[in-house]
Amino acid sequence: MGKREVEVNVNVNVNGKVGSEFPLSFWEVTVASIVVLGFVLGLLGVYLTLPASDYSFLKLPRNLEDLQILRDHLESYTSDYTAQVLVGYCVVYIFMQTFMIPGTVFMSLLAGALFGVFKGVALVVFTATAGASSCYFLSKVIGRPLLVSLWPDKLSFFQAQVARRRERLLNYMLFLRLTPSLPNTFINFASPIVDVPYHIFFLATFIGLIPAAYVTVKAGIALGELQSVKDLYDFNSIATLFLIGIVSVTPTLMSKTKS
Which residue ranges does UniProt annotate as crossing the membrane (predicted)? Predict the structure, then answer.
């Protein structure tokens, strides 16, 4: 089962529910707070370097309407203040990935709308990989009690799958990144707890996110034509991602058959 097994010691009461005790210690909360403060200071630094203006439009997009408003305002700033927009985009995206905040799909669409396909894909893959890595290392400090408290069954499943595929772990992690088998946010947070080495985590993340990033960024160029986020992934797109995922995991399946 690997060098360090996950000990899923869930505090269960007589009704079979997880206990209500706060899962983090004082020092774990302190570390998380310091990380949040670092991101806030980074965003503040970007904000202070922008020209005086009305920035009431700056908020995390929660729907396509919010995204289109943000795109319309940022287009004028992107040409004159490219560095600030890029740094601000990266800090926000990495922050969202680190703390598993929903909405990164809108940030990926925004990259396509502002920077085009090639630069947009490069930006999304870089920030998504950096954010996933940040989440990975933060989870080393505070992840175990949270995962045990929130998703004990899913954590046990992931632990067992990683242990079974230890020899072909990169293929399996690529499969997870390319298909919606497990949420990416859960993979980011749980990987260090189930002993996925960082170099495998990094490679699988960097390579595995490229196809989905391309689909989303390309859709961002025609942002005005989107009626819903569901329009991003039609049958052909989903089938293609699954096909790539199956190809990535084939070596693992073949090795199991031979043995």
Answer: 29-50, 86-111, 117-138, 174-194, 200-223, 235-254
